[in-house]
Specification:
The complex is a heterodimer of chains A (412) and B (235). Chain A is of the alpha+beta class and 412 residues long. Chain A has helices at residues 2-15, 17-45, 80-87, 124-128, 141-146, 155-162, 231-244, 267-275, 281-310, 315-323, 328-364, 376-403, 406-411, and strands spanning 57-60, 63-66, 73-78, 95-100, 103-109, 112-121, 133-136, 150-154, 172-175, 178-186, 200-203, 217-218, 220-225, 250-252, 255-257, 259-261. Chain B has helices spanning 44-51, 74-84, 100-109, 125-135, 151-163, 181-196, 208-211, and strands at residues 2-12, 17-28, 33-37, 59-64, 67-68, 85-89, 169-173, 200-204, 216-221, 224-230. In chain B, strand 4 (59-64) and strand 5 (67-68) form a beta hairpin. Chain B starts with a strand and ends in a 5-residue tail after the last strand. The chains are: A alpha+beta (412), B alpha/beta (235).
């Protein structure tokens, strides 16, 4: 039966090439926009280089200290002092890495100024993440303990500083009037990766970092690796307990704090809280689905209109199928399947178009080192969107066609 | 086999009401070959549609095989049509986008006939369609499309489609109307053979010669039955 439907759908497509072009153009354009958008959202919050263990990682980005009336608060990244006292001693995580905010500084090659992003990290940072080293290796615990002036640099910074694909391990770079020996070169990370994107990575103990401050507020963020996804709740719980034991009030840099606001969160929650105003995942997904539906509605209505307009072309077929025993529900199924077939063709076209657009966006430099992809997640979401579009645009014409009276259908 | 009792059919639009059939009482027994004649617009096709459950009467009762079907739901009517009735139309109503074999298979799509080759559950849809095409002498045209066939061949495909599900009733609406007399006679011969094999056939026709080849002639005029006579085969 399905083969019969697909054959018909294919022949209907070939019958009017211009109509087919308009239909497929509308479907593929709509789905392309949604696929590119899906790919971008996936790039922002999905599991990507170099954070391939994001599914079992928890993140801390900020700490808030609040006064007694809860009207005044100081909020910033966390200090090394705070991390040393309350985070690094946690028992439940498999590993804990600290990494500073991305700081912008300058470096000079001759008279040419290079603006670069700098991050101070510990040795565990290289174990929790999966950076691809194109040359050399990361700094290890002894380098951190000794505060060695060593660095890992990104591929793009190497190209800007030393020249394309130069052998640079063991050579020195000068950043902020300090020389660092290059230990390794990593594949560049897109600027959208909040915890891992930088041009130069240095041990947090180098003199320039000034990591020893007296406040709880500082410049560090934390990535905690859970043993598995079940272990994440235990980490959150342990952290909450540790925080609840901090005696309040306390004075931090002259600010009398009565409450602390800090959580170990998933990457999505961290991203949503700091970058998107804080919706939870359910709200976010609802908003995305609503947007996608609204976006699909207009082209779907257009397709409905075209399909309804053409339904009388197939009156004889409808009459015959009904006369020979097709109930309304079966015909409804047939026309929806046919529409899904056409929509899936549009989806395939959209996939090709999306790949081209994603490649162009990646190469445009709009976001440095952007590496949007069409991965399994994007593919699944795109297929779902395509199916929804197919059903949305197919159901009304299908219903109208299926409801045609047999006698009228055969007369026409 | 088919009984119509006090049948009326009225077509209504917002401005006009047309009485297509009035007070039709007709019983057709199993194995009969009945022709229905009358001038254009007298209600022949409407009557055939009512007998074929393609349309519902405005009043009266339709019985098929002793069952009153007037109150049946769409799904039940569809099932009854699929199992008991085959249709042949003047303009063939073949689906041009499907091959001859696919066209003939259509009635089998809506029943539990298997599409796979499994001898334990009887013939497959393909086998049944091929058998039907053999009966009408078109087994060499299975992969052709309707557009590649002559009028007579198209009507034979339509007959194969009507008989593929082995229905007990065949309703033919002017099956020879679009054919020359030679082709018409061939089609008529096939219908006579099907009747000889046990099928009940009801045929609407304008052609007195064709009507004379059936066993019984029902005449309509202006929506009313004006004649019902038994004929001898004119072989």
């Amino acid at each position: 039966m399905l083969t019969n439907y697909i054959k018909i759908a294919w022949k209907v497509l070939l019958r009017h090439p211009f109509y087919t072009f308009i239909t497929l153009f509308g479907i593929s354009l709509t789905l392309t926009v949604l696929m590119v958008l899906t790919s971008f959202i996936d790039h922002l919050i999905g599991v990507h280089y170099p954070e391939t263990k994001r599914n079992r990682s928890l993140y801390m980005m900020q700490l808030g200290i609040i006064d007694s009336t809860k009207n005044s608060r100081n909020q910033s990244s966390l200090s090394y002092k705070f991390l040393k006292q309350f985070v690094l001693p946690l028992q439940t995580p498999e590993k804990i890495a600290i990494v500073s905010d991305r700081m912008t500084t300058n470096s000079y090659v001759g008279s040419k100024r290079l603006r670069l992003g700098l991050k101070f990290t510990d040795a565990a940072f290289w174990e929790i993440t999966d950076f691809a080293f194109v040359a050399g290796k990361p700094y290890r615990q002894p380098n951190v303990t000794n505060g060695d002036n060593v660095a890992v640099i990104s591929e793009s910074f190497r190209d800007d500083y030393f020249g394309k694909e130069a052998a640079v391990v063991g050579k020195s770079i000068e950043v902020d009037n300090t020389r660092y020996r290059v230990l390794g070169v990593v594949k560049s990370v897109p600027d959208t990766q909040l915890f891992t994107s930088a041009d130069v990575y240095l041990p947090y103990t180098v003199p320039k970092s000034n990591y020893l401050t007296d406040s709880y507020l500082g410049m560090f963020q934390v990535i905690m690796l859970a043993r598995d996804s079940q272990n994440m709740a235990a980490i959150e719980q342990e952290y909450k307990e540790v925080i609840s034991r901090i005696p309040v009030p306390f004075v931090d840099n002259g600010f009398k704090a009565y409450h602390l606001e800090t959580d170990a969160k998933t990457y999505f929650d961290t991203f949503a809280n700091t970058q998107a105003g804080g919706p939870d995942i359910a709200t976010f997904l609802t908003l995305v689905v609503l947007f996608a539906l609204m976006f699909m509605l207009l082209p779907a209505l257009n397709l409905v209109n075209l399909n309804v307009g053409r339904s009388m072309e197939r009156a004889s077929e409808i009459g015959i199928r009904k006369a020979f025993g097709a109930p309304i529900t079966t015909l409804l199924g047939q026309f929806i399947i046919e529409n899904l077939f056409i929509t899936l063709l549009g989806g395939l076209l959209a996939l090709g178009l999306s790949w081209i657009i994603i490649t162009l966006i990646n190469q445009s430099g709009w976001i440095a080192h952007l590496d949007m992809t069409i991965n399994l997640t994007v593919l699944i979401v795109s297929t779902l969107l395509t199916l929804i579009f197919g059903v949305l645009s197919g159901i009304i014409p299908a219903w109208r066609m299926a409801k045609l009276s047999i006698a009228d259908a055969l007369k026409s | 086999m088919i009984s119509l009792k006090k049948i009326e059919k009225v077509y209504r639009t917002s401005t006009i009401e047309t009485l297509a059939l009035t007070n039709i009482n007709l019983h057709i027994g199993a194995g009969e070959f009945v022709s229905i004649m009358g001038p254009s617009g007298c209600g022949k096709s409407t009557l055939l549609n009512l007998m074929g459950l393609l349309d519902a009467p405005s009043a009266g009762q339709v019985e098929i095989g002793g069952q009153t079907v007037t109150q049946y739901r769409d799904k039940d009517l569809a099932q009854l049509r699929n199992q008991k009735i085959g249709f042949i139309f003047q303009s063939f109503h073949l689906i041009n986008d499907l091959s001859v074999l696919d066209n003939v298979e259509i009635p089998l799509l809506y029943r539990a006939a298997s599409s796979r080759k499994d001898d334990t559950v009887g013939p497959t849809r393909r086998q049944m369609a091929q058998e039907a095409l053999e009966k009408v002498g078109l087994s060499n045209r299975v992969k052709h499309f309707p557009g590649q066939l002559s009028g007579g061949q198209k009507q034979r495909v339509a007959i194969a489609r009507a008989i593929v599900g082995r229905p007990s009733i065949i309703l033919a609406d002017e099956p020879t109307g679009n054919l020359d007399s030679g082709m018409g006679n061939e089609i008529m011969a096939i219908l006579q053979q099907l009747n000889a094999d046990g099928a009940t056939i009801i045929m609407v026709t304008h052609d007195e010669t064709m009507a004379k080849k059936t066993q019984r002639l029902v005449r309509l005029f202006d929506g009313s039955m004006v004649g019902d006579s038994t004929l001898m085969y004119d072989v």
